[in-house]
Write a structure and sequence with these properties.
Layout: E1 3-5, E2 11-12, E3 15-17, H1 20-29, E4 37-41, E5 46-56, E6 59-70, E7 77-83, H2 89-100, E8 104-108, H3 122-140, E9 147-148, H4 154-161, E10 166-169, H5 178-189, E11 193-198, H6 206-214, E12 218-220, H7 229-243
Parallel strand pairs: 1-4, 7-8, 7-11, 8-9, 10-11, 10-12
Antiparallel strand pairs: 2-3, 3-6, 4-5, 5-6
């Protein structure tokens, strides 16, 4: 059954109005008609069986028939802080983070980022990332939207963290392993949050690592091999969610 996003504020009792983008997808792409049943999810954990009734202007109206799922919040909120990679790699990282159940993603403008995102492109990028989140939720059956945050630098992310626990993957770390740190940190993060930081293709600048560690963020290595940034992000998020009991 086709899945569509419905914003909570667009639900009134048993009536729901899809926004223009979802309505256009339902009518013009999927060619759905009044009387057909679909699944609507609200991005906050709940999904509904619904029947399309017609249109109000450019928006599709639906009748909510029953609640299908009311997914509880994850045992841990994983915040993935991702150094801006080049090309469309961040699109892929966002997609996979949604599939895994990551809570939020912070695009990070690093000193060695090959990609330097222009301010004039930020709005379009945010709209694209939001669309990727929705599409990934539809495909994966996730009922909670991943929150893509505005682009920040290291100092701004640390201010936002407010001393929450964090791990930065650092290729020069020779002693602290990521698995051991997860074993130590995850029990104290249940029903709380954990920040996982992955650098861009150019790696971390020494000054960024100094700033992170001075704020209490722990450095860790994923092993002997050097993973691409998009691979490291997915592996690190998956391992943390597995350790917290959210996968497997």
């Amino acid at each position: 059954m086709h899945r569509f996003f419905i914003a909570p504020q667009d639900i009134d009792g048993h009536q729901a109005l899809l926004d223009e983008n979802e309505s256009r997808h339902a009518l013009q792409v999927m060619r759905l008609k009044a009387g057909q049943e679909v699944v609507l999810f609200d991005g906050q954990g709940r999904s509904y069986q619904a029947m399309l009734e017609g249109t109000q202007g450019r928006r599709v109206q639906a009748l909510l028939l029953q609640v299908l799922e009311d997914t509880p919040a994850a045992a841990i909120d994983i915040h993935l802080v991702q150094g801006l990679p080049k090309g469309d790699k961040l699109d892929t990282i966002i997609q996979k983070a949604v599939e895994l159940g990551v809570h939020s993603l912070y695009p990070l403008q690093c000193k060695r980022s090959v990609a330097q995102l222009k301010a004039s492109l930020l709005d379009k990028k945010m709209q694209r990332w939001d669309a990727i989140v929705r599409d990934a939720c539809k495909q994966s059956g996730r009922n909670r939207l991943l929150h893509v945050q505005p682009v920040r630098d290291v100092t701004q992310v640390l201010q936002f963290m407010q001393a929450a626990p964090g791990i930065v993957l650092y290729e020069k770390e020779k002693q602290a392993g990521y698995r051991e740190l997860l074993h130590r940190l995850i029990p104290g993060c249940i029903n709380r949050e954990l920040y996982i930081m992955v650098g861009p293709e150019g790696g971390w600048d020494d000054s960024e690592i100094d700033e992170l560690t001075a704020a209490g963020v722990l450095t860790a290595s994923l092993g002997r091999g050097i993973l691409r940034t998009e691979t490291a992000a997915v592996v690190a998020a998956a391992l943390a969610l597995y350790e917290a009991g959210e996968l497997g």
